[in-house]
Specification:
This protein is an alpha+beta fold. The chain contains three helices and three strands; from the N terminus they run αββααβ.
Length: about 120
């Protein structure tokens, strides 16, 4: 074997051993000194960046709210497609790890009794 082949063989063997050792152990010790494992750290919320319908970059002014969740789109045409089956697209985003924004509450309708323009023949 020449020296280049020996070096490559050593690197492959070393990398294989490192992969094997990290994959086999879960980092916990066994026996009386074993400590309970910690819960995995919560992942940071992943904001929606792509349209669930066409996959384009979202525009924050184009959105639809459904079941308290706000979904953004790349264009107005995707809103109509979304509204035909919103659960399909919300599931698609959530399965990809996206945390959807909360829908803002709808504006309350004006109280006609307190409206200074009430009764003037226009709404």
């Amino acid at each position: 074997m020449n020296s280049a082949t020996r070096i490559i063989a050593s690197l492959v063997l070393g990398l294989s051993a490192a992969v094997f050792l990290t994959a086999c152990g879960d980092g916990q010790t066994k026996g009386k000194d074993a400590k309970p494992s910690k819960a995995p750290a919560p992942q940071a919320a992943k904001a929606q960046e792509t349209c669930p319908v066409m996959g384009g970059k979202v525009v924050k002014t184009i959105f639809a709210d459904h079941d308290g969740k706000r979904v953004y789109f790349c264009c107005a045409g995707c809103v109509g497609t979304f509204k035909k089956d919103p659960a399909k697209y919300i599931t698609k985003l959530e399965d990809a790890g996206v945390t959807l924004a909360k829908a803002e509450p709808a504006a309350k309708p004006k109280d006609k009794a307190k409206d200074p323009h009430a009764g003037h023949g226009h709404d």
